[in-house]
Specification:
Elements (H helix, E strand, L loop, with lengths): L21 E2 L6 H10 L4 H16 L21 E2 L13 H10 L1 H8 L2 E6 L2 E7 L1 H5 L3 E3 L1 H7 L1 H7 L10 H9 L3 E6 L9 E6 L6 E2 L2 E6 L4 E9 L7 E3 L2 E6 L4 E10 L3 E4 L1 E6 L4 E10 L2 E4 L2 E4 L5 E10 L4 E10 L5 E10 L4 E10 L7 E10 L5 E10 L5 E10 L2 H9 L4 H17 L4 H15 L5
Parallel strand pairs: 3-7, 6-9, 7-10, 8-11, 9-12, 10-13, 11-14, 12-15, 13-16, 14-17, 15-18, 16-19, 17-20, 18-20, 19-21, 20-22, 21-23, 22-24, 23-25
Antiparallel strand pairs: 1-2, 3-4, 5-6
Helix pairs in contact: 1-2, 2-8, 6-7, 9-10, 10-11
Length: 464
């Protein structure tokens, strides 16, 4: 039985005194972008990439659809804070405040028991990372993106920005301009990583921006399960998290990317995630969204090779003053490709959940199939749920199926469970756990236990 005090539990909502080895002044301009690049001693190609992206960021407008982003003040955000002088290989080497943070969250305990490697980012940069020696001997690369740019520039240049260019959207441009930290993974041909690799992202300061960059390449016939966790303490001021994730699954490779998001309700979580699956490759997104003021997240899979497969399993819980705008995109380019989207959301206490999805089957993607299911549960009369699906089919041989449902908790079910001896709160929790169960079962047991408990904690103030 896993330790009940592990990761993603109720202890995430605490702050520590600022730990800053190097910090730049708040606000964003060209000089800030140059300062970040110069401090990292980057080659000219990366510096030029940042400056071009900053210009695109200035030109692009905020999205005029979806959640309200007008409260974001880019001039009040700190864009770079390095907490330690360098990465550590031992938790004991970290400053006390940082070490205690990760111990309270439970990351060291997870590393000991069921992970192949761990990366921990605190504010702008990774402060700790490790990987099992046998994986290193097999050629697996697991490091932060800053290290990858220096040690593996040819690989980074080949894939960086190829799926998500800075022109994609305003926040992708912002990330490309000021990115720091994040994860780089390369799995060599024919290597299967049995236990997950995990990265953990923590924002500790208020009015802060975290802009990690993640790049995963799974070579032919390889496999990897990558898990990321996210938390932050609650402040009265807003912070911004705008990550970019690019995944390349080469022929017959398999990648599963699991996110367990537990941001505090002052975080704007505006991320761009995209994967490309080549011939017979499989990419799976498992996306769990709890917390944040606003989340806008639509992981995409480009099914580029014949018989490629894509799957998105997503849950979201929107409470008071929260808008979870989530969904996904499946774009079929090649024949005989298969995709599935399962999205389940709960809105309570006046929160709003939205599904926003795209299924696009191109002309050459003959005999392709997609199945999409969107289920929403509304727990009261003041909450809201919306569905915005978009379907494009350019050939007559492919099949698309879409189902959507919106409902309230059945009072008869509550009554029945209470008649069997459960309290109203426990009866409601059981129904909600069952609602999410088909997705949470895809998560390793050690994480699913914590996720169930976190959902139950969030539900305590709900109206049945």
């Amino acid at each position: 039985m896993p330790n009940q005090n592990l990761q993603f539990n109720q202890n995430h909502n605490f702050s520590k005194p600022e730990v800053a080895f190097h910090k730049i002044k708040k606000g964003l301009n060209k000089k800030v972008v140059e300062t970040i690049s110069n401090y990292k001693k980057e080659d000219s190609w990366m510096k030029e990439s940042r400056l071009k992206a900053y210009k695109i960021f200035q030109e692009k407008k905020l999205p005029n659809w979806g959640p309200d982003l007008s409260k974001i003040n880019f001039d009040e955000i700190t864009y770079f804070l390095k907490a330690t002088e360098g990465k550590k290989k031992s938790w004991e080497e970290l400053p006390t405040e940082i070490k205690e943070t990760y111990e309270a969250i439970g990351v060291p305990e997870h590393e000991k028991k069921w992970l192949s490697g761990v990366s921990a980012q605190y504010e702008s940069e990774v402060v700790y990372e490790s990987i099992q020696k046998d994986l290193e001997e097999k050629g697996v690369i697991f490091c932060d993106m800053d290290t990858a740019v220096k040690k593996y520039p040819n690989i980074v240049k080949k894939y960086f920005r190829k799926l998500i260019p800075p022109t994609d959207n305003k926040f992708a441009a912002l990330n490309t301009a000021v990115w720091s930290g994040g994860t780089f993974i390369y799995i060599p041909e024919n290597v299967k990583v049995e236990l997950p690799l995990q990265a953990y992202f923590r924002i500790n300061q208020e009015r802060f921006g975290q802009f990690e960059r993640t790049l995963i390449i799974a070579d032919k016939n390889s496999s990897i399960h990558y898990i990321e966790g996210c938390t932050a303490p609650t402040y009265s001021t807003n912070s911004l998290h705008a990550a970019v994730v690019e995944i390349f699954a080469l022929e017959n490779a398999r990648v599963r990317y699991t996110t367990i998001q537990n941001w505090s309700n002052n975080i704007y979580n505006l991320v761009t995630k995209r994967a490309r699956a080549e011939k017979k490759a499989t990419v799976e997104w498992v996306d769990c969204n709890i917390g944040s003021a606003v989340t806008m997240k639509y992981p995409a899979i480009l099914l580029a090779g014949e018989k490629a497969r894509g799957e998105l399993l997503s849950i979201s819980l929107a409470g008071e003053n929260q808008h979870q705008d989530t969904g996904g995109k499946m774009i079929h380019f090649a024949p005989n490709t298969i995709s599935k989207i399962i999205n389940k959301s709960i809105a309570k206490d006046g929160g709003r959940s939205s599904y926003r999805g795209l299924v696009d089957i191109k002309k050459n993607a003959e005999n392709s199939k997609n199945y999409t299911q969107c289920d929403a549960l509304i727990l009261d009369d003041i909450s809201q749920s919306d569905t915005y699906p978009k379907i494009n089919q350019e050939n007559k041989t492919s099949i698309i199926a879409h189902e959507a449902s919106t409902e309230k908790i059945d009072k008869d079910k509550i009554f029945y469970l209470m008649s069997r001896g459960l309290s109203k709160d426990k009866a409601q929790a059981m129904i909600i756990n069952g609602f999410f169960d088909s997705i949470i079962r895809k998560i390793p047991l050690e994480y699913s236990v914590e996720l169930y408990r976190l959902i139950n904690l969030e539900m305590k103030k709900s109206v049945g």
